[in-house]
Amino acid sequence: MRKVPDNRAWWLVLPVLLLVALSALVPLMTVVNYSVQDIFGPGNAYFVGTEWFRDVLRDERLQESLLRQFGFSAAVLAIEIPLGIGVALMMPRSGVKASLCLILLAIPLLIPWNVVGTIWQIFARGDIGLFGWGLNELGLDYNYTGNPMDAWLTVLLMDVWHWTPLVALLCYSGLRAIPDAFYQAAEIDRASRWAVFRYIQLPRLRNVLVIAVLLRFMDSFMIYTEPFVLTGGGPGSSTTFLSQTLTTLAVGQFDLGRAAAFSLVYFLIVLLVSWLFFTAITHMDRDR
Amino acid sequence: MLDWMNWTPPVAIFFASIVAILMAMTVWEIVSPCTERKGFLPIATTRGDRLFIGLLSAAYIHLAFLAVSEVSLWIALAVSVLWLLILLRWG
Amino acid sequence: MRKESRSRGIGITIFIVLLLTPIYWLVNMSFKTNREILSGLTLWPREFTLDNYVVIFTDPSWYSGYINSMIYVLMNMAITLTVALPAAYAFSRYRFLGDKHLFFWLLSNRMAPPAVFLLPFFQLYSSIGLFDTHIAVALAHCLFNVPLAVWILEGFMSGVPREYDEMAYIDGYSFPRFFVKIFMPMIGSGIGVTAFFIFMFSWVELLLARTLTSVDAQPIAAIMTRTIGASGIDWGVLAAAGVLTILPGVLVVWFVRNHVARGFALGRV
């Protein structure tokens, strides 16, 4: 769209600016303040410089949780994106069936995150859950509360269950935007199914896929509630991701300085990755 | 009411300098509006983009110094400022 | 082509059945007695009971959780839409000093992990006396909902050609009147979808809602986690509470079903 240069538009943005400044800038400044001090109480704090940062960056427990987090986010993207595209391709193009599919697909997205945890907590149990019971009946030794690998896979499966519909809905809306004429032309050319996907559908999906990757990366990177309810981060620390490590530091141990330094490192990682994605999106918008 | 924010002078100076940089950039933009151009970075950028890239990489430079070495952070700061200037000029 | 569409239909049916199985299990369990739940696996309730739901609807410590959640979600919707509509209009129509950077800064807040803001939020709202109030949670949720709303609305607004705006100004409409009388009805579906997303993200969030409340404004999600901690979990009531948290979302998605796909793409297709 052709945009008109006009700096008075600032007045329209001002309310958002003030509101988000209150809820983002003030806390951010506070976190920076906390991160350079050792705080014992209001008005009782010592300046320690960058000690907390040095501490956090060299803390093995935090490094492990960071690695686990990257591994988890990578696995989430590797499964959910192709699966979501596949589901979107299988969905009916229009009519009552399409509406029904949309609503059913959207249901997992509308469940409060702790209830998602509860559902899987029940569903995966060996004694009262269909999933855990079924696996045990098949002769697999499955126990997500005792075996770290099982716990990790259960959290991953839960995330796939929870969020693949989002990817599918995004891709579906991308596919819907392709004019029928494109398909007719392909049929006249006797294009194969794969050629249709590769040269007609995939290019049109590019925009929504970037949004899907962006949202899925960000949200899986800050996952907290679901594994917290499902496994409590255990067994051991096999499913303790970054947000939970941070929450334990800040609220559990009240280790304010370390938690603040950790928050800032966490935030910087997210900021870098989201900037890369955002730049990619805006440059694509321009190419279009 | 602001007790809980635990302000300390170094952090206050830090945020004040960020605000100062932003205001200077705004004035500069009004006096001589900049156009997008392509430098050694892989994408076309405006002055503001290059400032942001510079500040973000400065943060990472500081973290890297903290993570792997014991040398004074003033060196990291010097490196960052130099990098920022290079970016603004040729980026 | 017919054979292909049949296999597609089978594929999507299998996926949706798998998707709904865990939910069916929750619903199934909410109609069972605890004795039946713990005595073995049954695929449907043998001793069908509504007792679990009766517990929730008669115990104030349970049902007040739903009321609290509803209150702050609605407050958040009102605040978010009020500030996001004009801002999205500005982003979609005008170029102004620092617009791109401002937009990115807003988005970065959607991407910031709530855990990072936990501690300062707690201190901030305690110090201004808003701790354990609905408005505190509503304001805190603006952190991620406002950027999202601006993003979606901007996508929808960019789809409306500028010519409409210019025609209205020629006809002598003032900006506020044009915005409310002409523009907002034109992007009505976009506003509906945005409201749906605001509802969804505020409704499902737990970390901030739980940290900023203790008794008076405690959301249903927090009440549920508290029950999990108790010795001897009441699985039936827990399942019933879970089912009741799913219902509002399903009701809301019904209203926006035709536009929801476009909304998920942030209005950008």
TrEMBL record, chain A:
Which Gene3D superfamilies does the record match to this protein? MetI-like
Give TM segment ranges. 12-36, 70-90, 102-123, 151-172, 208-225, 259-281
Q: Which GO terms describe its biological process?
A: transmembrane transport
Subcellular location per UniProt equals:
Cell membrane
Q: Which Pfam families has this protein been placed in?
A: BPD_transp_1 (PF00528)
Q: State the protein's name.
A: Carbohydrate ABC transporter membrane protein 1, CUT1 family
Q: How does it sit in the membrane?
A: Multi-pass membrane protein
Its GO CC terms are: plasma membrane
Indicate the segments forming the ABC transmembrane type-1 domain, all copies: 66-277
TrEMBL record, chain B:
Q: Name one Pfam family in it.
A: DUF2160
Which residue ranges does UniProt annotate as crossing the membrane?
Answer: 12-31, 51-67, 73-90
Q: Which InterPro entries match?
A: DUF2160_TM (IPR018678)
Identify the keywords attached in UniProt to this record, alphabetized.
Answer: Membrane, Transmembrane, Transmembrane helix
Q: Protein name, please?
A: Predicted small integral membrane protein
Q: From what organism does this protein derive? A: Marinobacter daqiaonensis
TrEMBL record, chain C:
Q: What InterPro entries would the database entry show?
A: BP-dep_ABC_trans_perm, MetI-like, MetI-like_sf
The GO biological-process annotations, alphabetized, read as: transmembrane transport
Q: Which UniProt keywords apply?
A: Cell membrane, Membrane, Transmembrane, Transmembrane helix, Transport
Localization per Swiss-Prot or TrEMBL: Cell membrane
Give every ABC transmembrane type-1 domain span: 66-256
Q: Name one GO cellular component term.
A: plasma membrane
The family classification in the record reads: Belongs to the binding-protein-dependent transport system permease family. MalFG subfamily.
Report the PANTHER family cross-referenced here.
ABC TRANSPORTER PERMEASE PROTEIN, MALTOSE TRANSPORT SYSTEM PERMEASE-RELATED
* Protein name from the UniProt record: Carbohydrate ABC transporter membrane protein 2, CUT1 family
Q: Which organism is it from?
A: Marinobacter daqiaonensis
| Species classification | Bacteria, Pseudomonadati, Pseudomonadota, Gammaproteobacteria, Pseudomonadales
